[in-house]
UniProtKB/TrEMBL annotation:
Alphabetical keyword list: Lysosome, Membrane, Transmembrane, Transmembrane helix, Transport
Organism: Salinithrix halophila
Function: Lysosomal dipeptide uniporter that selectively exports lysine, arginine or histidine-containing dipeptides with a net positive charge from the lysosome lumen into the cytosol. Could play a role in a specific type of protein O-glycosylation indirectly regulating macrophages migration and tissue invasion. Also essential for liver homeostasis.
Entry similarity comment: Belongs to the major facilitator superfamily.
Name listed for the protein in its UniProt record: Lysosomal dipeptide transporter MFSD1
Lineage, broadest ranks: Bacteria, Bacillati, Bacillota, Bacilli, Bacillales
Length: 434
């Protein structure tokens, strides 16, 4: 084995990080593209809005269901193999969607894409845990989240512009080909561990690396599921991050439109800026947590800010303008707490099974978003006056208060849970000898 220099080490790890991040960003393209291309796709297949919603949601179903299996596979066989295979599958799904002759075949596209991209986020987080030192994990997770978030912004505006020159079909086929190319590059250039890339252990700049777990995966899964801190961090993450995603992704715009008569464009500015603040705060909170060597106070602070934000949105007499900006930014910034939450989850289990633990938290947040979005709508319908216009129900601000109070309650449960999270001092538990 050759002992390469620190410069060589940095070059290899940033190449790995860049390749995995590009796949992550492409994953965001696949997640948000059906929204950007909604009218074009609907027009071509002559389908209703509900059918389009079902088509887009296929991605989320397979993605969520596949999180824990992906974590298990990544812990066993590494990020390189799993992300390479995942990116090829995602690419094929995108090509199937782009070439689909019928709506039934098109529905298969997001299903296959969701299956493929389900390996990417856990793959990158696991790879980060093996290529970056423990006291850099918050910072590198923050950069990962920030770049993913950039992907979601890119997927909205620039996609709509691309559609002026190219058909949605050709854009999906090209995205599919790009995924396949990224998969080949990942297989060629990514290495699961510094040792695999030829670095000798014992150098100061090398992160320590645990062995592959000797246990049956079911036993490791039991270890993850029975870890109390993981349970508490999940509640804390749902209280901040799932509530925010449920709001920014669905209810944050209609509440301004129905409650204050803002146009769609004016209202969407608030959620876009809140998402941008979330991305920037993710980087800051990860860096700050590593710097002070603490995780728990930031988890508590995130849930406290989130609770105040949701209570403010439900009960204060806010209006579009500075008070709305303040409250939207507050819940967005509080949601960045998820970076520290992911770091704790990685640190309270041996590194050999951290893929599974990260996947469990991610799946829980996805499920939380889906459930919270539905419950919010269901609560709105309970208070709805029955007013209709052009065949659609008409809501007013008071109809949104129940949903906002629900989010406040979930954040407060998260706040209580966050006090029970174990402080890791930014260090992983040690691997037990096999
Ligand atoms: N519907 C979005 C939920 C986001 C959950 C989590 N904060 C996250 O960013 N996960 C990364 C991923 O895309 O899997």
């Amino acid at each position: 084995m050759t002992d390469l220099s620190k410069f060589g080490f940095n070059k290899i790890r940033w190449t790995i990080f860049t390749l995995l991040t590009l796949s992550f960003i492409l994953g965001f393209f696949h997640r948000f593209a059906p929204g950007a291309f909604a009218e074009a796709v609907r027009g071509e297949f002559h389908i209703s809005a509900a059918a389009l919603g079902t088509l887009a949601s296929m991605h989320f179903y397979t993605y969520t269901v596949m999180q824990i299996p992906s974590g298990i596979l990544i812990d066993r066989f590494g990020a390189r193999l799993n992300v390479s295979i995942g990116a090829v599958i995602a690419g094929l799904g995108s090509i199937v969607f782009g070439l689909a002759p019928t709506f039934a075949v098109a529905s298969l596209g997001p299903f296959i894409v969701g299956l493929g991209v389900s390996t990417i986020f856990v793959g990158i987080m696991k790879s980060n845990s093996l290529w970056f030192r423990e006291n850099q994990y918050g910072w590198i997770s923050g950069i990962t989240m920030l770049l993913g978030n950039v992907g979601s912004v890119l997927a909205a505006g620039p996609l709509a512009v691309l559609l002026q020159w190219f058909s949605w079909r050709s854009i999906f086929v090209v995205a599919g080909i790009l995924s396949v190319v990224l998969s080949l590059l990942t297989y060629w250039l990514v290495r699961d561990t510094p040792q695999e890339a030829g670095f000798q252990p014992g150098k100061g700049y090398l992160p320590s690396q645990g062995p592959v777990s000797p246990n049956h995966w079911l036993q490791d899964l039991k270890t993850v599921l029975s870890n109390k801190t993981i349970g508490f961090t999940l509640w804390a993450g749902v209280g901040t991050n799932a509530t925010f995603y449920a709001f920014a992704g669905l209810w944050g715009i209609p509440v301004l439109r129905d409650g204050f008569h803002l146009s769609n464009n004016e209202a969407s500015l608030y959620t876009t800026v809140a998402l941008a603040a979330y991305g920037a705060a993710s980087l800051a909170i990860g860096w700050f947590s590593d710097k002070i060597g603490l995780r728990k106070p930031l988890i508590i602070l995130g849930n406290a800010l989130s609770s105040v934000g949701w209570l403010g949105l439900a009960l204060l007499p806010w209006n579009p303008g500075w008070s709305a900006w303040l409250l939207y930014l507050l819940v967005g910034i509080a949601a960045s707490q998820i970076v520290v939450t992911f770091a704790v989850v990685k640190e309270v289990v041996p590194s050999s099974i951290c893929g599974m633990a990260l996947a469990f938290l991610n799946a829980g947040i996805f499920l939380g978003v889906a459930l919270l979005q539905s419950c919010f709508g269901w609560i709105m319908d309970l208070s709805w006056s029955g007013a209709m216009a052009n065949g659609a129900p008409q809501y007013t601000f008071p109809d949104y208060i129940g949903g906002l109070l629900l989010f406040a309650a979930v954040s407060m449960v998260g706040l209580v849970s966050s006090f029970f999270v174990t402080e890791t001092y930014c260090q992983s538990v040690k691997e037990k000898a096999a």
